[in-house]
Specification:
The protein is α/β, with parallel strands linked by helices. The chain contains 6 helices and 12 strands. β3 and β4 (about 45-50) form a beta hairpin. It starts with a strand and ends in a 21-residue tail after the last helix.
Length: about 200
């Protein structure tokens, strides 16, 4: 059984966490600063509800097999504040952000071989904390590798497709070109986050 922590419970993080919970092979926790009691997903005319474990900063560290970072690109430092709680030397960190600089955004926090870049195509919107509407099929694209294959296995039976590609850089660039730019980040300060445990 895979233990998974999803950092970020917005549109993408909410959909993926809820869908991962539909597989009995996964144990899922959500790291979010917004208090939620459950995740409620509306898709294809149906609504379903799951209750994940919700992590809070300062809790006892518990490394997971997988950490999925599902935050905006400008929230990388904020996402990294959770790393000491959920990342150990054998954790693989999937960076679910569009663009071509997945590893660069987290290079100061994680060793390169611990990261898996993921291009995201999940048409969804958060309508309220813990409530997300998914508007169409979701596809995640990863580089063809052993980590990519393991990542794809997490989503078997969840309704999310995972595509493994040989030329990930081109796929990421094409996705970035077709994706509207993210809004400017809100004004706030980020405390410095310590580097996660390295292999």
């Amino acid at each position: 059984m895979a233990t998974i922590a999803v950092i970020g419970a917005g549109a993408v993080g909410g959909v993926l966490a809820a869908r991962l919970m539909r597989s009995n092979a996964n144990t899922v926790a959500v790291a979010t600063r917004t208090s939620i009691d459950a995740l409620e997903i509306a898709c294809d005319g149906a609504t379903w509800r799951v209750v994940p474990d919700v992590l809070t900063l300062g809790a006892v560290p518990e490394p997971r097999d997988w950490v999925l970072v599902a935050t905006k690109t400008y929230d990388s430092a904020e996402a990294a504040e959770w790393f000491e709680m959920v990342i150990g030397p054998n954790t693989t960190v999937a960076i679910l952000q569009n663009g071509v600089e997945h590893r660069e955004r987290f290079a100061e926090y994680l060793p390169d071989d611990q990261m898996l870049p993921v291009v995201v195509d999940v048409p969804a919107e958060r309508v309220a904390p813990g409530r997300v509407t998914q508007h169409g099929p979701g596809v995640l694209t990863v580089p063809r590798s052993s980590a990519g294959q393991e990542f794809a296995r997490l989503f078997i039976g969840t309704g999310i497709a995972v595509a493994e590609v040989d030329d990930f850089t081109t796929a990421a660039g094409e996705s970035s070109a077709s994706t509207p730019p993210e809004p400017s980040p809100p004004s706030r300060s980020h405390p410095t986050s310590p580097r996660a445990t390295q292999r």
